[in-house]
Write a structure and sequence with these properties.
By secondary structure, the protein is mostly beta strands. 0% of the residues lie in helices and 49% in strands. The N and C termini lie far apart (76 Å). Bound molecules: calcium ion (4 copies).
Length: 345
Amino acid sequence: MNQLDPLVTTLSTPTTKTNKTPGMVVTKEPVRFVLSTATYPNGAGTISISPGQPTNGFTSNTVVTLTASGGTFFGWSGSVSDTANPIHIKMDAKKSVVAFYIDSSLIWQNSKGSLATWFMDKTNFLGATGLKSPGVDWKLIAAYDFDRDGFKDFLFQHTAGRVAIWTMKANDFSTSVLVGSSPGTWKAIGVGDFDGDGYGDILFQHPDDKRLVYWRMNGTIFISAVNLNEGKIGSQAWKAEAVSDFNNDGAADILFQNTNDGRLAAWILNGPNSFTASTLAHNPGPNWQVVSLGEINGDGKKDIFFQNMDGRIAVWFMDGPAILGSCALNKGQPVATGWRLGGSK
Ligand SMILES: [Ca+2]
Ligand SMILES: [Ca+2]
Ligand SMILES: [Ca+2]
Ligand SMILES: [Ca+2]
């Protein structure tokens, strides 16, 4: 070895175990991670952090309890995705958490049955949270406040036909109710108040002959099945997609989409056997499927949500059956593969 080479350093093992003459003491600083928190809207509530955060952050793997208080809490987003309160997070990395005090707007379901919700400020995405999953066999049909407690509940249909309602408190599961008898092959389409009694009723369409029926409901309790249009067979290409009160008379109307060319049509109902049908002025094309009706732009009028075959989502701002404008959501980007927009609040 060339002892003169300045790039070669020979380290010698100390001959004694006790370093009595420390020339250089290296103090190993514990790894620390900073936790940042925020509420949305800003100041809508408070987040308490326990234990309190040292100025330079928590030491690695500290478990921290976060409690959101004040207002109506809807869920955590950011480094965690949860609706529980309080939550415990392990500080194994730098973390940033937002407590949402606004209701989420869009409800998603993936091909495994998992549910997630997006918090939106009108058409701007703010954050996302995972929700309790109904399992792979239950399809989310709509979000609707069946029991009129101020929180939207979820309507699911099983692959074998049965429908169930989850009552929800904010984004937390409350109870599950299996509704009525089995509708068999009839497909649940959406929820609206067809008879004007203040309670949401469930619309079904037969997949083959396109007949329409609604289940009169009293909250989550099935009352009776009512034929629409005298139980007549419908046009083959027209699939009922969503329910909304287009003319603001307090009774639900139906939005259809043509499965061949994408055209949209509305039935303005006047009782179960009388309606005015009109085709909407614009056609989104067959690749854009109607997924839901819900209010998003703050004018109080229900808008139409579409999802494209490629995963992109868009909304048409509506005034009844009249189209006021349109907007691409998610910055015009497709959502992750397998996720379907199942409802809006
Ligand atoms: Ca409810
Ligand atoms: Ca009703
Ligand atoms: Ca109406
Ligand atoms: Ca609107």
